[in-house]
Amino acid sequence: xxxxxxxxxxxxxxxxxxxxxxxxxxxxxxxxxxxxxxxxxxxxxxxxxxxxxxxxxxxxxxxxxxxxxxxxxxxxxxxxxxxxxxxxxxxxxxxxxxxxxxxxxxxxxxxxxxxxxxxxxxxxxxxxxxxxxxxxxxxxxxxxxxxxxxxxxxxxxxxxxxxxxxxxxxxxxxxxxxxxxxxxxxxxxxxxxxxxxxxxxxxxxxxxxxxxxxxxxxxxxxxxxxxxxxxxxxxxxxxxxxxxxxxxxxxxxxxxxxxxxxxxx
Length: 265
Known about the structure:
The chain has 265 residues and is an alpha/beta fold. The protein is 42% helix and 25% strand. Its main location: membrane.
């Protein structure tokens, strides 16, 4: 016959009977809290990956072109080489931009954008000629940055011709040796950009003899001595005022804008 059970013995029995199952339950709950979210993330990631890369839904079905003026949308599409049918997420937009600028130098900038769920948009900005260089019966177009980007058989209207009339004089030879032809072309571009709008529209030829000897030949036979490309804004203002004050003059000199001159011949 068992003796009386003490309070200490009863406490030990309760601890023995309740301890291990309680620990197991706590461990199971902790395991579920960790494993179930991990499994959910894995399943969600697998589903998203399949949706983006493996499903037939988010794939390139059409490509649009905007912003063309001289180029045709067909030319842009052919040069872009967008992989129709490929997953939208896998399209290399940077690579397409680089390829377009390389294949079509007339393109100054292009933005390739995804239009979910099935479209790719090609937003093009074309270069605009500010000067023309005649060569072999054709015309080389030069943009505002001095880039020679295209050769055309017909001169665009309203774009002045650039004439490099580099004489063999000492100053012209030194100018060519120091700056080079490309630099002189860029100087001519700066002059063309600085011209007042009315004068720019009427300019037929922009003649470069040296770095600081650039002149304009206008449609009415008038000549403007511009000098270098420096102080372009001041020269433009002076020329506008001078042409109003001496409307019958044929020759204008704004090479030194603070001391302009005009004459009838």
